[in-house]
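Q: Here's a chain of 385 amino acids. Please give me its 3D structure as tokens.
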Amino acid sequence: MRLSDCHNIDDFRKLAKSRLPFPVFDYIDGAADDELTKARNTRSYDGVDLVPDVLAGVADIDTSCTILGRKSALPLMLSPTAVQRAFHWQGETAVAKAAEKFGLWFGISSLATRSIEDIAAMTSGPKLFQLYVHKDTGLNTNMIERCQASGFDALALTVDTIVSGKRERCLRSGFTTPPRFTPASILSYATRPQWTLDYLFREKFSLPNLDTHVSEGSSKAVSIAEYFNTMLDTSMDWDTAAAIRQQWGGTFVLKGVMSAGDARRAVEIGADAIMISNHGGRQLDGSRAPYDQLPEIVDAVGGEIEIICDGGIRRGTHALKAMCSGATAASGGRLYLYALAAAGQDGVERALAILKDEIERGMRLMGVTQVDQLTNDRIRQRTLL
């Protein structure tokens, strides 16, 4: 299978699986426990039908919108994801450049494999930093100040990783950051020579936003679960969030909000946006899908705060359904991670071009010429028997 054979996000997934050692692929693809919530995140979009208008004169359409104060060419964001250098040697560099080319927001994680400063220097596009609150308060302050100095447009505080979800695929494979070769996985690494050679002989894997304070994850291999369970601050609460918002002073997002009550609290502390997210199904298995929870949260705080529906996006029509249901934008991680793993920047650009084409085609077929015409009267709940 070649990159030119990829015509949807699932095709990129198949190509990534063929090119990655299985511990690395399973880290991207896997989720918590029985992975019910991960599957639900995408399946939830099947429960809503689009209602198109015809004869609407759709020769000229405008897919752009404003997200977090900056213009986006599509109602779509690239969610922050960790350790991208493990998936392809270009890592976050590829995603940053592709996002800028397509005029989209993208985010980097605290556990990014490119530094805050490097990302800021390579793109003028809108960029978000995802903050994990560590027990080391000096590290938290260091990352915030570096983002301020580098001109990041928004800070997203991740609120759903007080402890790690039980990611059983990673437990079986022994995946760590940095990746390490184990007796159980050595054959898989050996039969993926391009990935293995890139990993061994290109620039060394590191987590440059953390390694000023901690060795775990950069020079000391740990599992993501071990990192979360030992390094992150389990005492984080609403006072913590409010204090970080004050310390940051700029556009502030809470990532991982899933209840209407928490959405209301986000408004009360002055957050600019929430990302309705269950961390790609990687934390609390059995939780609702963001899209299923979207109407309830829109009813509670719609018009008071921006609402980004994060997770499960595999099609342009999924983003359109999220907009019709009241979201400011849709976002996702795997939608570009599979493509990154499959073919680096070329893969990400092809994936974004496909999603852009699907959004444009979907709007035309719906009789929509502007994003603000994606309203609730254009969808219907499907009756499930």
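Q: Can you summarize the key feature?
A: The chain has 15 helices and twelve strands.
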